[in-house]
Amino acid sequence: MKIKLETIFKGVLATFVGASMAFTANLAFADYPDKDITFIVPYSPGGGSDQMARRLQPGLEKALGVNVRIVYKTGGGGAVGFSELHRSKPDGYTISNVVVPNVIISSKGEGVGYKAGDFSYIGMTEAAVGALMVPNDSPYSTLEEFVAAAKEKPGMLTVAGVGSTGADRWGGLAEILGIETTYVPVSGGVGKMMPMLAGSHVDGGMTASNHATKHKAIVKALVVAGNDEVSTLPGVPTEPQWRYVTTWGIMAPPGTPDDIVATLNAALKEAASDASVKDALLKGGYNTMIQSVDEVNAFMAANIEAYE
To answer: Which residues contact 259 (CB under 8 A, 6 or more apart)?
Structure first.
């Protein structure tokens, strides 16, 4: 009987301790957030991720009631910033851009230390299709001229893109067009690519249509991915076989508590729903997105599976 009572006592004690720890943890998160939040941008200033963070920053600060500090952790096609987030404490005070498929493709790199499925996803806010661009002073003013030159000089034309993601995306279009070029990887993001195009240091650049829209003064788009014309790039031909869509959103470190994820998701929805943000996205060549936590998790699971 003594043994049974001791066993019962230990069980009751363990239950009490567990409940106390859970109660204490809930108290710790009850006032979240109560200090500044760090927003990691994994690409150079001026790129799509930086623009996204700057658009959402005021709305996030208003919704959360704290400052949101933007910091840059660049390199490795986003891998440096994604790794930094992966190592961060899952307390809701460090978040990051997430770019799809970049986070999936970069996770396959040797030694990056993360998998795309590890993170706690908050929501996606915008998407843009791919675009092939050339400098405004390029001798190639149409896709047909670019393709003809590439076929005449196999491997001689240079096309820049962001890291391994860009290589994957450009490889798909080059195969469709039946051409061979030299790919030039840019590790710092589109912000580092545009000066290369402006100075005609490369023959072409391959990124999302929002960049072709923003930088019309220095580049001309020759083709966009998908079936539909991009409203901000009227007259630019489409390539239905080229399945290139870039999606931007926000994520948190692995293991971030559900209640914090829900709080961040609600704040993101509020910030993304602002009329000025929606207007900027539409004028910038994006499609807008507002997702629940369940929706972003389903979206990521589908994309991770597609890139397997």
So the answer is: 29, 32
Residue 54 · residue 110 · CB < 8 Å:
no
Q: Which residues of 191-201 are buried (b: 16+ CB within 10 A; e: fewer)?
A: bbbbebbeeee
Give the C-alpha separation, 172 to 163, whole Å.
15
Q: How many CB atoms lie within 10 A of CB 81?
A: 27
Token pair 């920053």 in the structure block, residue: 57
Alpha helices in the chain (DSSP H): 2-30, 48-64, 79-87, 102-106, 143-152, 163-177, 190-198, 209-214, 258-272, 275-283, 293-306
Token code pair at residue 201: 């240091």
pTM listed for this prediction? 0.78
Residue that finishes a domain, picked among 212, 239, 266: 239
CB 82 within 8 A of CB 112: yes
pLDDT number for residue 17: 45
Highest mean pLDDT among 54-68, 151-165, 186-200: 54-68
- Cis bond upstream, residue 33 (ω within 30): yes
Q: Are residues 151 and 114 in the same domain?
A: no
pLDDT at position 133 over 60 = yes
Question: Does residue 122 sit in the same domain as residue 253?
Answer: yes
The residue range of the domain holding 298 is 35-126+247-306
Selection from 134, 136, 193, 141 nearest residue 166 by Cα: 193
Number of structural domains in the chain: 2
pLDDT bracket for residue 23 (50, 70, 90) = very low
| Alpha carbons 145 and 149: distance in angstroms, whole number | 6
